[in-house]
Design brief:
By secondary structure, the chain is of the alpha+beta class. Helix content is 49%, strand content 24%. It has a five-stranded antiparallel sheet with strand order 3-2-1-4-5.
Length: 140
Amino acid sequence: MALVALVLVAAGVWASWDTAQHVLLSKGREHGTMTVTGCGDEVCTGRFAPEAPGAPSRTDMTIPRSVAVEKGGVYEVVVKPDTTEAVRAGLAGGLHAWLPLGGALLLAAPVLGGGLRWPRAAWASGGAGGVLLVASFLSL
């Protein structure tokens, strides 16, 4: 059971890290705002206006489509290096990036409580996952 709980949490961290690394370790990366001009099934496209003076703006930027991204919205973003893909920045972007970890913590809670008989760890895991999900929902 401990291995199952560990795998659940590790999978949540692994799934979150692909996006979260660009938000948390954004120093030296291109920052700016993106105005969404159109959305498809999986991605939205738009214009990128960089924060750095003299940096060229781009019109071919993409951002993953989610409930938090809509046509006409203006979002703070960080550009993934050597791509035209943007990731939401700031507190809302950071919380949104860690959503898979929040779900994994919620899934691990019954395993910790029922399978391992660790009620305090189960409540802590479930509470942390729930707080992360609710905070992400409220910030977006």
